[in-house]
Write a structure and sequence with these properties.
Largest interface: A-B, 50 and 58 residues
CATH class of the largest domain in chain B: Mainly Beta
Order of helices and strands of chain A: HHHHHHEEEEEEEHEEHHHHH
Largest sheet of chain A: 7 strands, mixed
Strand content of chain A: 5-15%
Radius of gyration of chain A: 20 Å
Oligomer: heterodimer
Number of helices of chain A: 12
Radius of gyration of chain B: 21 Å
Strand order of the largest sheet of chain B: 2-3-7-6
Number of helices of chain B: 12
Strand content of chain B: 5-15%
Shape of chain B: globular
CATH superfamily of the domain at 206-345 in chain A: Butyryl-CoA Dehydrogenase, subunit A, domain 3
Distance between the termini of chain B: 40 Å
CATH class of the domain at 206-345 in chain A: Mainly Alpha
Distance between the termini of chain A: 13 Å
CATH architecture of the domain at 206-345 in chain A: Up-down Bundle
Order of helices and strands of chain B: HHHHHEEEEEEEHHHHHHH
CATH topology of the domain at 206-345 in chain A: Butyryl-CoA Dehydrogenase, subunit A, domain 3
């Protein structure tokens, strides 16, 4: 029966992530952004918590807490710094193709070495529909240029398309870029010159599942970004006085602030639903695409208005709202972007049965 | 976290689905075509009562002690939401016309004395025939601004004398009784409000006028007057002691917080009906090859799903007795807009066919607009939200 309760375990996960973000990420967000990396101390503190293996299978490898747990952590970290959230997660969404195609064996072979004393970094590149410069396959190598990845280095590159995935460990050249957003994770143009393929799989179904989970990952980050932008600008509007009262008490802004809350909550419930579906083993590709789409659109409503509420101050880098606007935009470009997600969210329009599109009680 | 429905709820949905396809939707289309509410002596209502509909949820037993456990199963707000959405999917106007105590039931249950519950809800436990209750707050000059009602109540010996005009009360002219809100002193604002049960045939309850509406024609929205209408003291809901505790208006607001997601989810049902009907049309006319059409249908589907989840979330909080003012208002602000978008898009997909005025989608386009007005307009929801989010002053 309908129940939105997270339960003690997930609440603890969320509180832990929030505490870490408050202690390590929010106070140093600009520092991390200009350094394009986090301090070794913060990385060590995060590794200590053990969130890296949150979703991994139980029996010794991970905690098997599922997609919902990951979403909660990502929202909390991204509410401080979404780039840092990417930098801190050694596998990030690159975990999903490994797990979906290769299962436990691939996770242990490629992912486990990145966890531990000196965390490594895996990067997921989408090479399917929607990408502007597809990579070219030549026998056992991959070549081409990825215009932007939110990373300055990678120990492992996972290239996913709609039919399969390949894993690369060598042959990657990173040319640093300024980056539009997510700079705490780095920003580079990635060149592959006959990079040798270390492993590969072909399975369109697994590719769909991996992409769905990657989109949900991005949706989790987007939630944090827009939540913080909405909160920061709301508190500013209570403090800032114009025309004789706090600007929040002018109805034009009061209603805008309400609409920002509606947008955030709409995206949040869709993200929770998609995570629940994934964890319950239900069909979730459409749900994940839908959640990502809603989160990306909501973020592009909320975060520019976060800047707007602060007016001139919002445009200046003394306040974080301009950063959230850039991060919100950048996150929506990942994994084929919103138009790619739209295609998958539209699945089911053609073959909806007699009971209709959103029949109650349908699985 | 669980977003599945239990077997009992799914079973009840099946029943509504069968009734919806065979009777509720045809009846709604008929009322729309004829431009009048379904008459109270229609065989449909008789059949509903025989099938066990039209009853009160008051059991006739004393209330449970406070500190209640979370509402579960068929008694929960969440189940009520699922059933309400499915009813509205088939026809929201017909759903409101169903016999039963209606919106008068919540104030009687939450504020009424045991004697009042027995007198007014008792006949609805196992009704002998279709019976209706009604609820009248809105006035010609006071809609969203509930505190501004002007209908007056004056104590005179053992009774109260009511004067004023009420608008848009559902099922009022066919009701056994109407819960009427009036004020003992307009200068007191909400604290002056009192709720009375005005019974059919009481002298001074006059001038019933069934209004003509843009949509939702299957149920009557009725205006009436109170002209020196004399109501016995025992019909003041809760008795005078209840209002001495200054809980009068809070009583009304409490019911609003529980009903906002319930009304919002009816918009979800209407929107879903529009979405399914326009999707059928798009399929029949090979419009799904057009990405522009697909994109917009996807957006509507997403907004409707999101609205449903927001309603469920608010109801889940209510079932656990947790504050839900913000969540309830979010759902009520969001769902009608999503549903209207579904109907607007549906009309566009129909093209000239929508212009004929005889398609289900065209009816839904007219029906759905009411949902952003009743139970607090979208603007009132934003005011409520702003009070929570930025402590927006009331004046």
């Amino acid at each position: 029966m309908i129940d939105f309760e997270l339960g003690d375990e997930l609440e603890l996960v969320r509180q832990t992530a929030r505490g870490f973000a408050d202690d390590h990420l929010r106070p140093r967000m600009r520092e991390h952004e200009s350094a394009r990396a986090l301090s070794a101390e913060s990385c060590a503190a995060y590794a200590e918590i053990g969130f890296a293996t949150l979703e991994w299978p139980e029996d010794g490898v991970g905690d098997e807490l599922g997609a919902l747990a990951r979403c909660l952590v990502l929202e909390e970290l991204a509410a401080a710094d979404p780039g840092a959230a990417l930098a801190l997660d050694p596998l990030g969404p690159a975990l999903y193709p490994l797990a979906e195609f290769g299962g436990r064996e691939a996770v242990e072979r490629f992912a486990s070495p990145l966890i531990g004393g000196d965390p490594g970094r895996a990067v997921l590149v989408w090479n399917g529909p929607g990408t502007r410069r597809p990579l070219a396959r030549n026998r056992d190598t991959l070549s081409g240029v990825v215009p932007w990845v939110p990373a300055d280095r990678a120990d492992l590159l996972v290239v996913l398309d709609d039919a399969g995935a390949v894993v690369l460990e060598r042959g990657m050249a990173f040319e640093p870029l300024r980056g539009a957003g997510l700079r705490s994770a780095g920003a580079s143009e990635l060149t592959l010159q006959d990079a040798p393929v270390a492993a590969e799989w072909q399975d369109a179904e697994a590719a769909r599942r991996a992409l769905a989970r990657a989109r949900l990952y991005a949706a989790g980050l987007l939630l944090g970004v827009m939540r913080e932008s909405a909160d920061y600008s709301r508190l500013y509007a209570l403090d800032r006085v114009a025309f004789g009262k706090p600007i929040a008490h002018h109805q034009a802004l009061a209603f805008l602030i309400a609409d920002m809350a509606i947008a955030l909550e709409s995206a949040r419930v869709l993200t929770r639903e998609a995570a629940w579906r994934l964890d319950a083993g239900l069909e979730s590709q459409q749900a994940c695409a839908t959640a990502f789409l809603e989160a990306a659109e909501a973020a592009l409503f909320v975060t520019p208005n976060g800047v707007q509420i602060l007016g001139g101050h919002g445009f200046m880098q003394d306040h974080p709202v301009e950063k959230y606007m850039r991060e919100g935009r950048a996150l929506g470009l990942l994994f084929g972007g919103v138009d790619g997600a739209r295609e998958d969210a539209e699945a089911g329009l053609r073959d909806a049965g007699d009971e209709g599109l959103l029949a109650l009680g349908a699985a | 976290m669980d977003l599945s429905l239990d077997a009992a709820t799914r079973k009840r949905l099946e029943t509504i689905r069968a009734l919806g396809a065979s009777q509720i939707r045809p009846l709604g289309l008929e009322a729309d075509r004829l431009g009048r509410p379904t008459p109270p002596d229609h065989a449909f209502f008789e059949g509903l009562v025989k099938a066990g509909q039209g009853r009160t949820r008051w059991t006739g037993e004393a209330p449970e002690p406070s500190g209640r456990a979370p509402a579960q199963g068929v008694g929960s707000s969440r189940t009520a939401l699922c059933l309400a959405e499915e009813m509205a999917y088939w026809d929201r106007g017909v759903a409101v016309s169903f016999p039963g105590p209606g919106l008068g039931e919540p104030p009687l249950i939450s504020m009424g004395t045991e004697d009042q519950k027995r007198r007014f809800l008792g006949p609805f436990i196992e009704p002998d025939r279709p019976r209706w209750g009604s609820f009248a707050m809105t006035e010609p000059g006071a809609g969203s601004d509930v505190a501004g009602i002007r209908a007056s109540a004056r104590k005179d010996g053992d009774s109260w004398v009511l004067n004023g005009a009420k608008s848009f009360a559902a099922n009022a002219s066919r009701a056994d009784w109407i819960v009427v809100w009036a004020t003992v002193d307009p200068s007191l604002g909400r604290e002056g409000h009192r709720a009375f049960v005005v019974e059919k045939g009481m002298p001074g309850l006059v001038d019933f006028q069934v209004e003509r509406k843009m949509g939702l024609k299957a149920y009557e929205s009725t205006s009436f007057s109170l002209v020196d209408c004399r109501v016995p003291a025992e019909n003041l809901i809760g008795g005078e002691a209840h209002y001495a505790q200054r809980a009068g208006f809070k009583g009304a607001m409490r019911s609003f917080n529980a009903t906002r997601p319930l009304v919002a989810v009816m918009a979800v049902g209407i929107g879903r009906a529009a979405l399914d009907a326009s999707l059928d049309f798009a399929r029949e006319h090979d419009l799904l090859e057009d990405r522009r059409v697909r994109d917009r249908l996807e957006r509507v589907r997403r907004k409707i799903l999101s609205a449903r989840l927001l309603c469920w979330q608010a109801a889940w909080l209510a079932d656990h007795g947790r504050p839900n003012i913000l969540e309830a208002s979010i759902s009520k602000a969001m769902a009608p807009a999503a549903a209207l978008e579904a109907a607007i898009l549906g009309m566009e997909i129909l093209g000239e066919v929508g212009g004929r005025g005889d398609h289900l989608v065209e009816k839904l386009f007219r029906d759905v607009k009411a949902m952003d007005i009743v139970e607090g307009t979208g603007q009132v929801q934003r005011l409520v939200m702003a009070r929570q989010l930025v402590q927006l002053p009331r004046d």
